[in-house]
Predict the 3D structure of the following.
Amino acid sequence: MKVLIVGSGGREHAIATSVSKSPRVDKIYCAPGNAGIGQIAECAAIGAMEFDKLVAFAKEQQIDLTIIGMDDPLVAGVVDAFEAAGLRVFGPRKNAAILEGSKAFSKDLMKKYHIPTAAYETFENADEALAYLETAQYPIVLKADGLALGKGVLICNTLEEAKEGVRSIMLDKQFGAAGNRMVVEEFMTGREVSVLSYVDGRTIKTMTSAQDHKRAQDGDQGLNTGGMGTFSPSPFYTDEVDKFCQEQIYQATVDAMAAEGRPFQGIIFFGLMLTPNGPKVLEYNARFGDPEAQVVLPRMKNDIIDVMEACIDGKLDTVDLQFEDNAAVCVVLASDGYPVSYEKGLEIRGLEKFDGKDGYYCFHAGTKLDENGRFVTNGGRVLGVTAKGADLKEARANAYAATAWVDFDNKYMRHDIGKAIDEA
Ligand code: AMP
Ligand code: GLY
């Protein structure tokens, strides 16, 4: 069969790598893709938001299955566009992707269906939000309602900071229309865990756990980024935590969406905080995490096409989802200056050192081929170097060893990805 993947990051490279292992797949296309994806797929220069062009391309190439990797097209209804054209597509429809697209929606859903999450208030008016802050407890968390590249969350320690935050989100529109509404939320403490799951509208099967590192610098300092590295599984995600979440959070979310007339098919990514009062939902995403996908997918034993088709056909209950009994660590190699400003077009050397190395992956994010056919940097997050190991410590040592195989000017990484493992 022919498969089209929509997106251009490390996540999509990890998805494409899994798809390439399926004996059912003859040819992979990716739109728009990147230089690394281009080694295993044919890349088409179509943007992820160009729905008409994507649909026309899928028809022309007789694509059997399209997989949507990114949040923006999902929230804007790309799945509906494919379905309207009679095309098979993996991902939630617009009315279900709102689970990620609106924080106010997801918070109201959790409240209505008693799914554990932080206490909150929603505001559509800056004056009301400012008045509320006068009586609130600090620290407090402000969230722009809509998509904001993972940057629309502000943790404010004082009333002054919070007022400034409300002004920048709701009045100055720092995150654009995402800030037309705002959620003000109780500050929670604890370890964070990401749990990704496959969902077919009724049945949910969770994948192995992972943990991201969102801040730019060592010791969780600096600005929030899309993610600087991940490890999987999380040693803090115990059987007891899993049991609680299976009973109180996962199925409850799927049932709630179905009850609202918004059946969810695709990936639900549960961002969890393990608080002293038990696990609570920080956020939902409607797609694989990036770089979570880069440590979770390499450990999945199933044929990814079988699992995705079972989601589309409502047959996920027949799938026995299995993961390897090992660990993986991903260290993101970024351009120095990310997430603010950075140079592009710098040559990347040493990529061939990954060839034929079992258990090692160099997933491309911001890369392209220049006019001379050389791999060059083309974004803030450039590569995701992933390695497996028998356990987390071995995987971490392997991943950091492999970060030395590749080089480019202004190469930047965190040196403490997976440090939490030592505290487990
Ligand atoms: P989100 O995009 O909602 O996952 O938020 C981004 C990051 O902000 C999370 O990964 C947490 O580190 C932090 N965060 C979000 N909500 C809260 C909260 N209620 N309490 C403490 N930290 C939070
Ligand atoms: N790594 C976090 C995300 O993909 O949203």
Remarks:
- The chain has twelve helices and 23 strands.
